């Protein structure tokens, strides 16, 4: 059984999760994009009891009728997502908040019906180690 730790950008919230993830999905839904301000969000699914907040208290935002997004009220980092009507007993962790985000590779993409068209070819864009050359 593995233990993964993580937290928000400012350090006010810390958590640990025990056990193996059910799945690690890259979500393309509009709700996730708007909440994160990013074109795609990585979520690792666990049984709710596997996650323990060890420092601080996340604020909860009702993003829609059944969705609850947990985030740090100090820095705004998104942390967890719970939807008891669709996935009872399950919690999603925003995987980029792990201390070692490489520890659990993504295995699927979900909500691709809502994926931004240009994301389909993002892997083909020019890539730079840091910043592109300045003109």
Task: Give an overview of the whole structure.
The protein has 135 residues and is mainly beta. It is 5% helix and 36% strand. It contains one helix and ten strands, in the order βββαβββββββ. It has one helix at residues 30-36, and strands spanning 3-7, 14-18, 23-27, 41-47, 51-55, 59-62, 68-71, 78-82, 90-94, 108-110. The strands form two sheets. Strands 6-7-8-9-4-3-10 form a seven-stranded mixed beta sheet. A three-stranded antiparallel beta sheet has the order 1-2-5, with no helix packed on it. A hairpin with a 7-residue loop joins strand 8 (78-82) and strand 9 (90-94). The radius of gyration is 16 Å and the shape is globular. The model has no long low-confidence stretch (mean pLDDT 94).
Question: Short description, anyone?
Answer:
This protein is mainly beta and 135 residues long. It has one helix spanning 30-36, and strands at residues 3-7, 14-18, 23-27, 41-47, 51-55, 59-62, 68-71, 78-82, 90-94, 108-110.
């Amino acid at each position: 059984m593995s233990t993964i730790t993580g937290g928000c950008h400012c350090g006010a919230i810390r958590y640990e999760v025990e056990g193996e993830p059910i799945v690690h999905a890259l979500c393309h839904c509009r709700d996730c994009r708007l909440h994160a301000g990013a074109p795609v969000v990585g979520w690792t699914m666990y049984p709710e009891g596997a996650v323990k907040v060890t420092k601080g208290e996340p604020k909860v935002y009702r993003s829609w009728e059944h969705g609850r997004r947990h985030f740090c009220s100090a820095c705004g980092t998104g942390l967890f997502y719970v939807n008891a009507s669709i996935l009872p007993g399950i919690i999603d962790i925003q995987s980029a908040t792990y201390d070692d985000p490489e520890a659990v590779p993504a295995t699927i993409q979900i909500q691709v019906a809502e994926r931004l068209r240009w994301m389909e070819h993002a892997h083909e864009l020019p890539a730079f180690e840091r910043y592109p050359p300045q003109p």
